[in-house]
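Revision sheet: structure tokens.
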Amino acid sequence: MPPDPEEVSAGVFAALADPNRRAILASLAERGPSTATDLSGRLSITRQGIAKHLALLADAGLVTSDAGGGRRVLYRHRSEPIKVAQSYLAALAADWDGSLDRLSAFLADPP
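Predicted:
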């Protein structure tokens, strides 16, 4: 059964509400797979802070982790949940567009 778009979107919006998490995702998108230590050095956030943010991003499905060489864990960004959230917002916008079009028509030519 596919995930509920509203639930996925809620997780994405909550995760993206924090500027540090947005910066982590931007760094992963720009620089590719990275360790928490790499991210910490680039973003001036403690490694422990990065780890907490990565856990929240992983819960929202926005990052995945893979074992690298040795004890290294590489994090990668995932765009699929953001695409689900975009579709969810587009559907909401379409509902509003229809309502606003009807209101506009009513105001232009009242009964």
